Amino acid sequence: MTAEDENSLISPEFFGQYSGVADDIHSTSRQVLSMAENNPTPTGTFKILYFAYASSHTKKSEELLPAPMQLSELFETLDKKYPRMKEKVLGSCMVTVNLEYVDMDTSEEKELKAGDEVGIIPPVSSG
Amino acid sequence: MKTILEAENEALKKRISELEAQLASRSNDASVTSQQPYPPPNAANKSEVKLSLEEYKRYGRQMILPEIGIEGQMSLKRSRVLIVGVGGLGCPAAAYLAGAGVGTLGVIDHDTVENSNLHRQIIHSTSRVGAPKVVSAITYLRDLNPHPNYVPHVEPLTTENALQIMAEYDLVLDCTDHPAIRYLINDVAVVMNIPIVSASALRTDGQLIVLNNPPGVGPCYRCVWPRPPPAESVVGCGEGGILGPVVGLMGIMQAIEAIKIITKNPARDIGRTTMTLFAAYGASPFRCLKMRGKKAGCVACGSPERVGEKITREGIEDGRMDYVAFCGGRAGMRELREDERVSVAEYKEVVDKGVEHLLLDVRDKTQFGICQLAGSLNIPFSEFEDSKHEDSEAEAIKSKFQDQPKDRPVYVICRLGNDSQIVTRQLKQAAIFPDDQVFDIKGGIAEWARSGIAGEFPEY
């Protein structure tokens, strides 16, 4: 990668290359901010990331939950941990597993394994 | 005898006709060799366009990119793009698309420029505060690039006008700020086979996704978010705050996606829908999420199990779709009776008369730090919300007022007068103070500042 490439912050390659993986360019901000985010996930857990109002509801941007867990049990588990989260947050959220969309409306069986990364992504409408 | 300039002019004209001839033969080839399953957005607009010499120079730096080339530039010139909302997202998006030489650029917004817009809505200006945003935007854009045809729509996009307005465009940029209008844009774009470049931003984070692209294949807004967010979780930039360059970045990325769609080479570009999440303060600021294609059962772009749920052109036209109701009604709420509230003038009297009282400010600590009324006690709204999850809400609230005398009247204030009503109700239910002695201050700190009742006070 050349110095020029590093400057083209919004090329499509950038997204591909830097999406969700550790990188060098942002090492400084990483130290200052969330240390946990790029640390390896401890055995027996998966990482869950909360965005927008999911983060406001849980008061955290990420945490570790015990693995394995059936995807179909995820919302119930979160609702128990964070009262009324299903009604107030999860009902309107998109969910990703390892940076890929998963459809929570179909009864598709999927197991969340140790080391997985789950994203809870509410629609943000302002601009 | 010919001057040097004339000679140069001749040469350039010759070169242009050569390039145009090349272009014509190439597009003929393309139509034979690669049968496009989905026509590019501007296929409907076949009218011939030409670039002036000035335009060759103006667009040269992007035309020499193999991704654009002369064909891409012609596609841009043929394209008709609608920008819905010319605020934090729409401003930079419009500027870059105008600069890139989009042929027709429509701008729709019903708002006027306010001075609190200017830290992020960078194509408006201090001298145009009070002007319709659409007029202000086009003033800037025309100065940037006089070539595009700018179409002003100084009105809100509604179920009544959306079909008619969007029919004039091949691509729409959703730069709006409320879920109701996002669903409206989506439904109209789906029935009209128009791709949407959608973005949003709040605080220090942003989202970007290209929807209904190609039409009928890529997911639409309802595929991704079939259910709207609960009304109380919808926070605008006015309440939640927004870092200017964050929303600017999202708007610029919309312009990039728009250019990619318009100049798309179907042989080269594989349409794969992704969502980009940006978090300015995140450890990994960019996340790129792989999406799936459209949902088979989507009520907008798919075939729902219950056929009656399918959103149709007629349904929108007949006004059967109530987007505001779907998204849980309008913001703005009334929790209290009139006698449970006081105006800022009435509260000022309380202060002037020297009545012993407690002023409870429920704004968050950051806002409280910006400005506050003398002698106020700050307990953020979020703490009152959290108390709802405690075993005893009343006890949790009571513990916050341990050190306070309970025989004095309490006045509750927030920024705009909504949160304070909820807290006033909670305080009354917790029965810590005499029920008829807890009051909400109408319109909050903002009204206190606007009314000028206590002289100069910052409005933010």
Give me a quick take on this structure.
The complex is a heterodimer of chains A (127) and B (460). In chain A, 29% of the residues lie in helices and 21% in strands.
Provide an overview of this structure.
- Chain B: One of its GO terms (molecular function) is thiosulfate-cyanide sulfurtransferase activity.
- Chain A is an alpha+beta fold.
- Chain A folds into two domains: 3-33, no CATH class; 45-121, Beta-grasp domain (Ubiquitin-like (UB roll), Roll), CATH 3.10.20.
- Chain A is 29% helix and 21% strand.
- Chain A is built from six helices and seven strands.
- The longest helix of chain A has 8 residues, at 74-81.
- Residues 1-36 of chain A have low confidence and may be disordered.
- Chain B starts with a helix and ends in a 9-residue tail after the last helix.
- Residues 24-44 of chain B have low confidence and may be disordered.
- By secondary structure, chain B is an alpha/beta fold.
- In chain B, the strands form two sheets. Chain B has an eight-stranded mixed beta sheet, sandwiched between helices. A five-stranded parallel beta sheet of chain B has the order 9-13-12-10-11.
- Helices cover 39% and strands 13% of the residues of chain B.
- Chain B has two domains: 53-318, Rossmann fold, CATH 3.40.50.720; 341-451, Rhodanese-like domain (Oxidized Rhodanese, domain 1).
- The interface between A and B is large, with 45 and 59 residues.
